[in-house]
Amino acid sequence: MDNNTLETSRAVYLTAEDLRVAASILYNAYHDDPYFIEVLGQDDNQQYEQKLRAAIREELNELWQQEQPLIGLFDGDRLIGVACVITQQVPLGEGRYWHWRFKMMLGTGWKSTQGLMQKETCILEHLPSQKCGVLQFIALSPNEQQKGYGAKLIQAVLSWCDEQPGLDGIGVFVSNSSHHQAFVKQEFVSIATVSIGNIEGEILFYSKA
User: Fold this and answer.
1) DSSP 44
2) Residues contacting 18, CB < 8 A, separation 6+
3) Contact by Cβ (8 Å): 192, 209
4) What is the pLDDT of residue 147?
5) What are the phi and psi torsion angles at 146 (to 5°)?
6) Would you say the C-alpha torsion 141, 144, 149, 150 has a positive or negative sign?
7) SS3 of 186, please?
């Protein structure tokens, strides 16, 4: 991957017109994620895929409606990466809005919706303050991985965080060792080892201090 190609990429806020492509990128990236397999269930593959699409769609729509930062990495006009942050200005975990619970329940079922809330509650319990964001999603298109774009996308998120006077930092739950290394290289540190359901992972945190 040459630096000239990386230099043609840019990170900007997503528009409403970008959400469909963003959802597709996230679906492909998280299709085999152990946490989603655990919480949505993969006994029936078709049903699992429908639930995953619904979970991503409803969360993207909620983040958009709540004016949370949806950051896209573009190569020219092509959207190749997505990062979604949610701040505690929006109730998370067990405090999730009723309309979110209802829509998520229709798309994924009540048990899965509870699992999604439990993950958020677990992350919140370990963050150092209530002035922290949570990195809900981060993903690259399959063909754009291993090219240096992942680091650039994480850096875009941290640049956004550094510009927010009301934030102390950003937390993320990571269960994949390669993802762990990518975040650690960008100044995230492990603040807790946790089990969410049957999935073990770490909560990593980037502090502005």
Assistant:
1) S
2) 70, 72, 79
3) no
4) 76
5) 65, 30
6) positive
7) coil
Q: Which H or E run includes 78?
A: strand 78-87
Local confidence pLDDT in tens for the 209 residues of the chain: 344 445 567 899 999 999 999 999 999 999 999 999 999 987 788 999 999 999 999 999 999 999 999 999 999 899 999 999 999 888 899 889 999 999 999 999 999 999 999 999 999 999 999 999 999 999 999 887 777 899 999 999 999 999 999 999 999 999 988 888 899 999 999 999 999 888 999 999 999 87
**In sequence order, what E strands does 88-196 have?**
132-140, 169-174, 189-196
Look at the chain and count its residues.
Answer: 209
pTM over cut 0.85: yes
Whether residue 149 contacts residue 89, with contact meaning beta carbons closer than 8 Å, is answered with no
Burial class (CB in 10 A: 0-12, 13-18, 19+), 133: buried
Retrieve residue 177's tokens: 């060792």
3-state secondary structure of 179: helix
How far apart (Å, rounded) are the C-alpha atoms in residues 52 and 57?
8
| Residues 175-184: contacts with CB under 8 Å, at least 24 apart | 175/33, 175/34, 175/35, 175/199, 175/200, 175/201, 175/202, 176/34, 180/204, 182/150, 182/151, 182/154, 183/154
Read off the tokens for 24: 């597709």
Pairing of strands 169-174, 189-196: unpaired
What are the Cα distances from residue 179, in Å, to 112, 151, 154?
24, 11, 11
